[in-house]
Amino acid sequence: MRNAFTVTLDIEPRFRDTDAFGHVNNAVYVTYLEVGRQVYWARLIEGSDYRDVPFILAHVTIDFRSEALLSEVLEQGLSCAWIGDKSFAFDYRIRDKRSGRVVVEATTIQVCYDYAAKRSIRMPEDLRRRLEAFEGRSLDRASRAKS
After folding, report:
1. For every residue of 22-62, which 3-state class applies, written as one string?
2. Of all helices (H) and strands (E), which one includes residue 128?
3. Which residue of 30, 70, 93, 99 lies most exposed, with the fewest beta carbons within 10 A?
4. pLDDT in tens, 74-90
5. What is the pTM of this model?
6. 18: DSSP letter
7. Which domains does the chain have, with CATH numbers?
8. Is the dihedral of CA 144, 128, 53, 103 positive or negative?
9. Share of the chain above pLDDT 70, in %
């Protein structure tokens, strides 16, 4: 999985993450995705404060593929999938690290946002350049739609 995603991180489920059946509860995965975005941002903008992120979460899609248990170490991979005029997407995969069994596949869409004005903004060019350099490829959403 290390080659398929730009950022990978390990997640060790906590007891509080589980439901009555001992499975990681479905609602917890949104938090796991957020942790992944925090790690991605820290690697993208070295030394930056996460409170300075110029975006908000607008949409989450999660496909549950198999259960995860408290005793498993999970590996999450994520990459930026595309960049639009005001938004961008991340793709994720969470799997059991030992067996490689896929647990969750997800996508989030972030909208660039001015917190002071409380409105969406165009994708800052500096952020676009940083994301594309970090990913090592063009992320233009319009060109993806044409191909």
Report:
1. CEECCCHHHHHHHHHHHHHHHHHCCCCCHHHCCEEEEEEEE
2. helix 125-135
3. 99
4. 999 999 999 999 999 99
5. 0.91
6. B
7. 7-146 (3.10.129.10)
8. positive
9. 91
Dihedral of CA 84/134/49/25: which sign? Answer: positive
Higher pLDDT, 61 or 46: 61
pLDDT of res. 147: 46
Listed in sequence order, the residues at least 6 apart from 88 whose beta carbon sits closer than 8 Å to its beta carbon are 55, 80, 81, 82, 109, 110, 112, 123, 131, 139
Q: Which two tokens stand for residue 53?
A: 């992120």
The residue assigned the tokens 């989450």 is: 60
Return the number of other C-beta atoms located less than 10 Å from residue 73's C-beta: 12
Beta bridge partners of 83: 88, 140
Joined tokens for residue 92:
């994720």
Residue 101 predicted with pLDDT over 60: yes
